[in-house]
Amino acid sequence: MDNSKAMDTLKAILIDLGIPKESLHQDALLQEDLQLDSTEIVEIALGLKRRLGVSVKLEGRQDMTLDQVCHKVEAAISVHSNSNHAS
Amino acid sequence: MPLESEEIAEVKGLGVDIASIPRIARLVERYNTPDGTLRDRETLNLLFTLDEIDRYQSSSYPYLSLAISFATKEAVGKALGTGLVEIGWNEIEANLTEDKLTVQLYGNASIQAKRCGIQKWLATWCYWDEHVMVQVLGL
């Protein structure tokens, strides 16, 4: 998957949560910039699972940008894909 | 819940969390059909254990039940001192029996509790104005 598809999916989830489209830059931080709380961050993880079939952990010691979330999504897809090929 | 003085001296972790019932309802309703049937149990299982989902589906107050579960997970994460950084949401389970709340841990949550020396959990909850508050003590 290319980064733009992961980013498009992430933005769609955030718009569903009521975040204004104009706030959604790749460098925007989930908590500091978008003011998301733990319930909303969980909703993102569930949305990614439902729309892309990947499980990503978004609870971290540091705030994450949209771009960093997309990298996590890509890494999860890569691991999932490799494990399918190996089996 | 009353504590023996010996237990108070051995508190190794304390966590509190408040969850909004309407917000948990909104989250879960995304995985329901219009008639309220749960259509995506697998995705919801990222957040809640299968027993918690079963309780939600059979409860007279389903969203209250899930809000208690959600707040319990957050409170236990705080009591463990790590939050939910390396712990799966579904590795912390809240059980409700006649309104009595108990905590069961699995996987990394259980490992982290052992690291903290926690062998037992005491948990209480209360409800007001469409919110629940959960408090846990790790002993």
Give a description of the structure.
The complex is a heterodimer of chains A (87) and B (139). Chain A is an all-alpha fold. Chain A has one domain: Non-ribosomal Peptide Synthetase Peptidyl Carrier Protein, Chain A (Orthogonal Bundle). Helix content of chain A is 57%, strand content 0%. Chain A contains 3 helices and no strands. Chain A has helices spanning 3-16, 38-52, 66-86. In chain A, helix 1 (3-16) packs across helix 2 (38-52) and helix 1 packs across helix 3 (66-86). The longest helix of chain A has 21 residues, at 66-86. Chain A is globular, with a radius of gyration of 13 Å. Chain B is 39% helix and 26% strand. Chain B is α+β, with helices and mostly antiparallel strands. Chain B has a single domain, classed as 4'-phosphopantetheinyl transferase domain (Ribosomal Protein L22, Chain A, Alpha-Beta Complex). In chain B, the strands form 2 sheets. A 3-stranded antiparallel sheet of chain B has the order 1-5-4. The mean pLDDT of chain B is 91. The longest helix of chain B has 18 residues, at 62-79. Chain B is globular and about 50 Å long. Classes of the chains: A mainly alpha (87), B alpha+beta (139). Chains A and B meet through helix 2 of A and helix 2 and helix 3 of B.
From the alpha-carbon coordinates, what is the Rg of chain A to the nearest angstrom? 13 Å
- CATH topology of chain B, by name, is Ribosomal Protein L22, Chain A
- Secondary-structure element pattern of chain A, one letter each: HHH
| CATH-derived topology of chain A | Non-ribosomal Peptide Synthetase Peptidyl Carrier Protein, Chain A
**Share of residues in strands of chain A:** under 5%
Largest sheet of chain B: 3 strands, antiparallel
Global morphology of chain A = globular
Helix fraction of chain B? 25-40%
Number of strands of chain B: 5
CATH class of chain B: Alpha Beta
β-strand number of chain A: 0
Query: What order do the SSEs of chain B take from the amino end to the carboxyl end, as H and E?
Result: HEHHHHEEHEE
CATH architecture heading of chain B: Alpha-Beta Complex
Of all chain pairs, the largest interface belongs to: A-B, 14 and 20 residues
Indicate how many domains the architecture of chain A comprises: 1
Query: What is the CATH homology-level superfamily of chain B?
Result: 4'-phosphopantetheinyl transferase domain
CATH class of chain A: Mainly Alpha
Q: What is the tally of helical segments of chain A? A: 3
